[in-house]
């Protein structure tokens, strides 16, 4: 099951857990309210997993590739991991499935506070278009992940502030309580 929590304010190494003290865990329901979707799958059978295929079909995740984020496999590793950790949003959902290793997605809640989501082997997550977020590997410095897209991949990240973008407006409107 996914593990998530509110972060501390430390500017220390981002690859550390950064749990707020006292601990403030975040459950799946709170993540769902932010538009974050989560599944736990068997990463050892990702090549022939009917459950993964069902999710891909239902959500139209037609494109995929695999990225390995580590010093030996990712050119310009230090530069790329710094870029991944800059707060940004996308115009499309960001879908990642961790096949090995681990890392953290940080997302903003409705009050602009950081929530850290631990991503480990078997975790599949969808971050909605327009949500401010960032990513870092954990202290192992190794993540192998499947990247999924509905349609052709678009890699453009819009650094904060990007509140003028339509995707951001739609996302913020989705957070508003319904009468």
TrEMBL record:
Q: Where is this region: Disordered?
A: 1-24
Q: How does it sit in the membrane?
A: Peripheral membrane protein
The protein's location, in the record's own words, is: Cell membrane; Cytoplasm; Nucleus
Report any one BP term from Gene Ontology: L-methionine salvage from methylthioadenosine
**InterPro entries for this protein:** ARD, ARD_euk, RmlC-like_jellyroll, RmlC_Cupin_sf
Q: Subunit notes for this chain?
A: Monomer. Interacts with MMP14.
In Swiss-Prot or TrEMBL terms, this protein is called Acireductone dioxygenase
Q: Which gene encodes it?
A: ADI1
